[in-house]
Amino acid sequence: MALQARHHALREEAQGLDEAARQRRFHQTELGELLHQLELDRVQARADLDRTFERLRTEYAMDPEAWTPAPAPEGFDPEAAKRQLEESRARLRGLGAVNLLALEEYGKKKERWTFLTRQREDLLQAKAQLLEAIEKINVTATQLFSETFARVQEHFRDLFKTLFEGGDAELRMIGEDPLESEIEIVARPRGKHLQSISLMSGGERALTAIALLFAIYLVKPSPFCLLDEVDAPLDDANVERFLRMLRRFSDRTQFVVITHNKKTMEAAHTLYGVTMQELGVSKLVSVRFDTRHEEVAAPEVLAGAAGA
Question: Which string of DSSP letters, residue by residue, matches the chain?
Fold first, then answer.
């Protein structure tokens, strides 16, 4: 019995020692984990400190290792400084989140604004130059138009008197701006009162138009002129006047006249007849008059006759 009691006591003691050993091992594990966490915190703190030192060196040009705090100025109140610091921190927190890209965005916006401002100035300068050029063009065009209008007016009166064997005619500008004003034709055939061209007969209007046409032609003569049935509304007497006009200017211009009038055909140097012998097929027939007729007709006048 004594041996059993001794064995039981030793067994209980061994169990207690095992339990104590387990407790110690558990405590050792906790201490190891804590030590590992402390080591991580130390490494992190060292990295933060290195970044802070590097920022002080790059942004503030200060060596943290050689830095020593300056003595407090005379009359420095630590409590007041602490309150001021807390107030500044409160205002900083009141600003909310700080946009770290604000300066970069501001730089881009400013660059864009500068570009657009420069473009606007260039456009305004170009606009001013264009307006100046337009003004010069308007002045030059107005001067040239006025001079040309006066010359056309002079030739128109002379030719009108020639075609109508008397009378008078003039061109009137209606409006203040010569470049935008309307032009009214006022004519007075021989033996009639001065009147608008709209009140004249068809033949008179045709002769007036021919006078205006040749008045413009005389300002800047052309070596070639095509007239398409301008003599259609004219009677025989007016056709003779029209032909005299052609002969007058035939020494400087070659005229091609499309006509159905026989008198105009007789006055031509060369005659081209256009006929349609078959449906849809036109045929051209030319006739050149002999020398006797050439002496009578205008030497440089061509006439075309259209017939079915």
Answer: -HHHHHHHHHHHHHHHHHHHHHHHHHHHHHHHHHHHHHHHHHHHHHHHHHHHHHHHHHHH---GGG--PPPPPTT--HHHHHHHHHHHHHHHHHT-S--TTHHHHHHHHHHHHHHHHHHHHHHHHHHHHHHHHHHHHHHHHHHHHHHHHHHHHHHHHHHHHHHHTS-EEEEEEESS-TTT-EEEEEEE-TTS--EEGGGS-HHHHHHHHHHHHHHHHHHS--SEEEEESTTTT--HHHHHHHHHHHHHHTTT-EEEEEE--HHHHHT-SEEEEEEEEETTEEEEEEEE--HHHHHHS-TTEEEEEE--
Same fold, 114-220 and 222-308: yes
Domain range annotation of the chain: 114-220, 222-308
Tell the CATH topology of 222-308. Answer: Rossmann fold (3.40.50)
Fold of 114-220: Rossmann fold (3.40.50)
Give residue-wise pLDDT tens across range 117-126: 999 999 999 9
Report pLDDT digits (tens) over 195-221.
Answer: 677 777 788 888 888 889 889 988 888
pLDDT digits (tens, 9 = 90+) for 167-193: 888 888 888 888 888 888 888 887 777
For residue 307, what pLDDT is reported? 38
